[in-house]
Amino acid sequence: MDNRVEKLPSLYEYYTENGIKSGLEASGDNFILNGKKIQILGGSLHYFRVVPEQWQNRLIKMRACGLNTVELYVPWNLHEEHPGKFDFGDFLDLRKFLKEVKEADMFVLLRPGPYICSEWEFGGLPSWLLRDTSMQVRSNYQPFKEAVKKYFSQLIPLVSNFQFSKNGGPIIAVQIENEFASFGNTEENDEDLEYMIFVKSTMEEFGIKELFFTSDEPISDGHRGSIPGVLMTANFKEGAEKQLNYLKKMQLDKPLLVAEYWSGWFDHWTETHNVHPAEAYAEELKNILKLNSSVNIYMFHGGTNFGFLNGANVKFPHPEIPYSPTITSYDYDAPLTESGDYTVKYFKTREIIKECCSSPKLRNPPLPYESKKMSLLNLTVSKILPWAKITGRIKPQHTVAPVNMEILDLGNNFGQNFGFVMYRTKVSGSGILILSGGVADRAVIYWDGSEIAVVNWLAGNMPKVELPKTEISESHTLDVLVENLGRINYGMPDDLNNQRKGLRGPVYLNEQEIHNWTVFPLTFDKPFIQELEYDDKWEIFEPSSQLCRPALYKIDFQLSEKPLDTFLYSESWQKGVVFVNGFNIGRYWKVGPQQTLYVPSPLLRYGDNTVLIFELHNTVLSIDFLDHPILDQNSP
Predict the structure, then answer these.
(1) Residue 490 forms beta bridges with which residues?
(2) Is 360 helix (H, G, I), strand (E, B) or coil?
């Protein structure tokens, strides 16, 4: 009797056992990789939504589920946050992520943009593009194309050596742009087609050799986002048989690929939490695979919109609502939760792959253990930094009339990208204040330091605020603090090209325009937070005292054991943003549906830790670290 255990090959060993002669090919009914049939079984995981210390854990869980491919976007607005200053290190080390994908024995579908949608701020486009008031994104507008080319000249050479056909790397296919049919029409508009060809040829110029593809919704979009000769793929949540049959009719000689099979959905602030039933998800996944289609599950692990980087939508999903900002959590009701835990969808996916796919027998890792979670309750606020001392740290700018944050001069041809911007002026008398053009996106109005009104995107283009009654001769300080709640990530040209934030027009008092404004850009970027954390003007917090809001609250605490994943919550907060050991973990807002903020364990430290909370409306008294998230509660 032969008791030897069969040694199964890895994915890479199987597809490269006779050397590398060709990359991924799309011809007939099947994909062929290096001469062997492959059914792409992918899942979306975005490295910029997961801290690097947890990349490996998420990748191994994907491979253990039976997936062989990772789909990933590349966010231009992070890699070139300021024009000409490129960042591919630390949190944004794309090369390291690609190495870890290969080590996890998976391939890559790369989606480098320049536009990525992804419920990400401005669809991944850098907001400094909007300093050009004539900017036309995703088009043949020459300054846009020049910016794309400069970006690709840095990005593509970095990833070029990770292509399969070049060096046996993980990248087997590359997407051109993203869902362009929702924005333009390459079938009827020559300029749109020219732009898409420009994106493709620019990637080729800087070294891309692998199979190209586009992705749209077949039935509703047809050929409007396609390029002649380039593989078309499908994006959808339901109706697999109809969608894929339609796709097959559009390209009879190509195999089927669902580039985005939506496993769940994202949430907007003020709306209810979205849940897609596991049974419906599983049934549609079976339908896809039984049609001999390859698939990428979007999202397989959603992660988090850290910082100010959530996107937003315009008139979607509700046509009557002009703007809907996305929450911090990108849990997406995906097979792996925001904190990387298994769900019913995960195990159903694993079972369906075993049942429906006739893939070669390959090595697969065992299921990793789920991470433990930490609970630590009633950590009280120890210090407070009042509003005046926060703004005192900022070098203000002076303008005759209010300007958008992108137009402010913060450096070499760039303005403010994210955060808050405060407009201050002096007025005499009282009456009706008119914010012509409206606010983008939410403004808190202060009269001599006291909050008197909140105006948001629902107030329209001419919101009015009644000021407190006062003597005509008296001079008062008027502050308008505007929060950029996220530029939209999806929309038509007029929508995307008009995403400048702050006050959107002149301000009037009793129909007289107010001039002479002092503007404070509150970026809350890492250097600014470090300055504030070590400021010598922090005051001892006394909850019984009358506080002037907004303010920054400090909680110092110690961990005597190894940090674990956890979820931050406060009963007393209302709206603001949180920094854990200097890292911006995102926005909170009591209106929900999200009530907790995910804190990955690598952001915490054994020993001393500091949490800073910038709160707009309430007095924060204490915080709790919970061992579970709250993503489905709405408050008035």
Answers:
(1) 313
(2) coil
